[in-house]
Design brief:
The chain is an all-alpha fold. Helix content is 55%, strand content 0%. It has two domains: 126 residues, Endonuclease Iii, domain 2; 110 residues, Endonuclease III, domain 1 (Orthogonal Bundle), CATH 1.10.340.30. Bound molecules: iron/sulfur cluster. The site of iron/sulfur cluster has 14 residues, from helix 9.
Length: 252
């Protein structure tokens, strides 16, 4: 798809999602290192679990220096609840130590003053910081309009035919240069919401979706989803991370 056509469709998706879920206004929270650590903790687990493990981590290691100086095993014990604890603990300790070695202290101050792609590449240099993590840090903490793609955004973008990709990192590589800056945050937030409540991995609620007229999921499959859902109980929603039947993207 030509970039100009993709951009036109992104505006269309944004308008319809705003009609479903409302406008979203970005208020950057300013804690870039916190966002970095928190995003590493979100891989392959629910928001509730990653919030809990982040709170436990901050309580156990009140300063970034204390966390950087900890043994990975100590960190692993604190974040065990969130899954993949050994990998995440090693990544967190490693990235904090490297920040301190390279910058003199554990900070990402000044990143927001670089051109946005330079800031993105700078973050991607760190082991354990994939494209989604880098974009989340820039967008949510520093207000730099870089489009993050998680499992929900990836699924919705593929079903809508905006991209044809196998992994969230590939979807992000295609969408990031094209998403207009003024809708970056709103589109991300509303695509995540859409993926969670309507365009779910299993049994999407297509009959409640304003995007159905231009969705590439065939109408016959949408009808089947409706019938199937009619015969199930409410609590049987699809898992948070079982998108498209595929495996988690190793590049976070
Ligand atoms: S019509 Fe169905 S599959 Fe397509 S975007 Fe909407 S909920 Fe998702």
């Amino acid at each position: 798809m030509l970039a100009s056509e993709l951009e036109r469709r992104l505006y269309q998706v944004d308008r319809d999602l705003v009609a479903m879920y409302g406008r979203k206004v970005l208020v950057p929270h300013g804690d870039a290192v916190g966002e970095l650590v928190h995003t590493i903790l979100t891989q392959n687990t629910s928001d509730a679990n990653s919030d809990r493990t982040y709170a436990a981590l901050r309580q156990a290691f009140p300063t970034w220096d204390m966390l950087a100086d900890a043994d990975a095993e100590q960190v692993e014990a604190v974040i065990r609840l969130g899954g993949l604890a050994r990998t995440k603990a090693a990544r967190i300790v490693q990235v904090l130590r490297r920040l301190r070695d390279e910058r003199g202290s554990i900070t990402l101050d000044g990143l927001e003053r670089l051109p946005k792609m330079e800031a993105f590449e700078e973050l991607n240099r760190y082991v354990g910081v994939g494209p989604k993590t880098a974009a989340c840090v820039l967008l949510f903490a520093l207000g730099v309009p870089v489009f993050p793609v998680d499992t929900h955004v990836h699924r919705v973008a593929n079903r809508l035919g905006l991209v044809s990709t196998k992994a969230p990192s590939a979807t992000q590589a295609e969408l990031m240069p094209v998403v207009p800056e003024e809708i970056t945050y709103q589109l991300h937030m509303n695509m995540v919401k859409h993926g969670r409540v309507t365009c779910r991995a299993q049994r999407p609620r297509c009959d409640e979706c304003r995007l159905a007229p231009y969705c590439t999921v065939p109408a016959v499959r949408r009808q089947e989803g409706r019938k199937e859902r009619g015969g199930r109980t409410q609590g049987e929603s699809g898992g948070e991370h079982d998108e498209l039947g595929g495996e988690a993207d190793p590049q976070i």
